[in-house]
Write a structure and sequence with these properties.
264 residues; mainly alpha
Length: 264
Amino acid sequence: MGLFNRKKTPEPIKPSAPAKTVNADDIFGTPSVKPKTVNADDIFGTPAAKPKTVNADDIFGTPSPRKAAAVSEPLDGPASINPDDIKKKMQELEQELAEKSAQPKIDYSQYGLVDDSEVADAQEKYEAIYKEEHERYLKSHVQDISSANTDDLSSKVDSMMNEVNAHRAEEAAKVYEVSQVSDEEVAKGMSELQQAPKDETKDELYQSITEVSDQDALSSMVDSMMNEVNAHRAEEAAKVYEVSQVSDEELAKSMATLPQAPRR
């Protein structure tokens, strides 16, 4: 909204001027020193071996394309924008916004009620479309199922029944190896079960246990609990809590902010 309410036309963006080349001689008034070229013949007294230039045409027999020297061209700045085009566009946007703002707001109460006949017509159209689409779906998913061969059906049933009966006879003929327990082994096991239970009091480990009186057990339990309580008290007493002191001004300010009790 803030963009379309602006009446001032923005200034067009001007292209930036190319940077001017500065010469060092114009600033300091002295020519810049250029590095001197040194010849190897002057140093060693012997002519230096120069690398031989190899031409691609002599190797491949075809002239090689030579790249033309790139011409340094000044870069163009951003294209200038016509202020009249910007002004015209802003006017169109403001006019469109004014037309939309002038349109009356439509409330749900302004819409008319739907008649029952319109609902029935829409339902009939929907059912017709659904029926057509359902039939099309069934036609596209029909599978070719060949009918069963009913020739000599009785012989096929007899063959299946003979196979079932043969399997039943095979299962009935199976002999499972189960060893039989003799009467002597059964009597021996029963006599072992009917023996008197073992007396644990006659065991050496049981006799080596010393009896502890109830008073000794209670006193040792109380001593253990008191030692634990004393250790906890000493740990709490050793803790140092950092408590900052509140000034009278801060206390008065906090009391003033508390809600006052209603007067009766």
